[in-house]
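#structure-requests
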Amino acid sequence: MKYGITDQFTFILFSFLGAITAYNFVKYSKVSKLYHRRLTKSMKGIRILTILCSLSFIYFAFKISIRTWLYMLPFIALTVLYVVPVFPNRKNLRSFAGVKIFIIGVIWAGVTVLVPLIHAEGNLNLNFLIEMIQRFLFIVVMMLPFEVRDLQYDNAALETVPQKIGITRTKVFGSILLVIFLLLTAVKNELISSTEILSKILVTTISLFFLWGTEKKQSEYYCSFWVESIPIMWLLILVILESLFS
């Protein structure tokens, strides 16, 4: 929608199925091992879903250009290294102090901005670079409520943002990133549409609301549903604004 790219249903399926495969790999690889002898019904369902999605992902991968794949590979590698302990002392990227949310931000920005534009043979200009930075900042902020929620569970060695600077300063840190995220829209060197400006203002406001509403003890669905759904809210905002201003 942002770049006017159409007729890319194959690539959308490729990204969507790859995201499910990657997420389940990261989330459930260790858990699945614990239940390998006697899998619960839910874990069996997750395993079957993951296998089906990964096979479909491979099928659509053959319909994607080699150039797109070359740009996708670094982000696939980061996803694997995030989980697989290949570093000294059996460490993975997730266990390195203070880098977790920034690795996730890089992967999201790459897969949702860089790779689609490469696939559509778009221009990697200043606007693209700003969009990449904005997406990275947005994802880092979206991770902060989860970091606050997991304070009571995370190992101190992870040195997450709330562990290092506390909950209130984490919210201030996230707010600063969101202000930068919003202001960067004005730096784009082409005429900015009303849709672009309004959607960024609205998603920044919504994100600030949920960031400051985050507490160490929160509803089960606060992060798992509401914060997770902010990107979907952003999409709905774009669709509504496009229809209003078209």
